[in-house]
Design a protein that fits this description.
Number of strands: 7
CATH topology: Rossmann fold
Order of helices and strands: HHEHEHEEHEHEE
Number of helices: 6
CATH architecture: 3-Layer(aba) Sandwich
Number of domains: 1
Distance between the termini: 33 Å
Strand content: 15-25%
CATH superfamily: Vaccinia Virus protein VP39
Largest sheet: 7 strands, mixed
Strand order of the largest sheet: 3-2-1-4-5-7-6
CATH class: Alpha Beta
């Protein structure tokens, strides 16, 4: 995790701008619940990094739990939350080691951006309340010469994300043709998903 700590300290992967996919999902959720008041709604941001999505959701009134194994990422999330007078329950926890357990039927929104841990998928589904949304954008296997090298076990195969959440109502699914246009620093194809419990 020292590598990610150093990246965040250097200002890498530290954009404040939320993913357009998450903005779209929140608009969908607002339409579903008949308003834009999210007070009392709970959101979970897995592998939150520097907290751009957690802060966006907290700013809308969600009670946000944000989890990442990088202490520097969590410190940056909390500092940004203090600057904006927002409350975020940000926790240093290694998801791969099971240091954070997703509560069942606890969240109205669960998001996972650019983190792949396949054995979390069932727990992510189970963590949703009825009507809750799952939002994910995860890198895929990409043969493009522009794609930065990554271990294949951190990359989705074609159709894998949609299949993993096929028990949910799929509201949006797309596999980008090239690197996605997210505000973060990404150089490879991604699979995007918005699904409702």
């Amino acid at each position: 995790m020292a590598d990610w700590d150093e990246r965040y300290r250097r200002g890498e992967h530290a954009t404040d701008e939320p993913s357009r996919l998450l903005v779209r999902a929140v608009e969908e959720f607002a339409a579903q619940v008949g308003g834009e008041s999210f007070g009392g709604r709970r959101a979970l941001d897995l592998a939150c990094g520097a907290g751009r999505h957690a802060l966006f959701l907290a700013g809308l009134g969600f009670q946000v739990t944000a989890v990442d194994a990088s202490r520097a990422g969590i410190e940056l999330t909390l500092a940004r939350a203090r600057e904006r007078d927002l409350s975020v329950d940000a926790r240093v926890a290694d998801l791969e080691r099971g240091e954070f357990i997703i509560e069942e039927a606890a969240y109205d929104l669960v998001c996972d951006f650019y983190f792949l841990q396949r054995d979390l998928f069932p727990r992510m589904r189970a963590g949703l309340r009825p009507g809750g949304l799952l939002v994910a954008a995860i890198h895929m296997v990409d043969e493009s010469p522009l794609a930065k090298p990554m271990r294949d076990d951190f990359l989705l195969r074609t159709g894998e994300l949609r299949e993993a959440f096929s028990e949910l109502e799929i509201l949006h699914y797309r596999e980008t043709a090239g690197h996605d246009d997210d505000a973060g620093e990404h150089t490879r194809r991604s699979a995007e998903l918005i699904a409702r419990h």
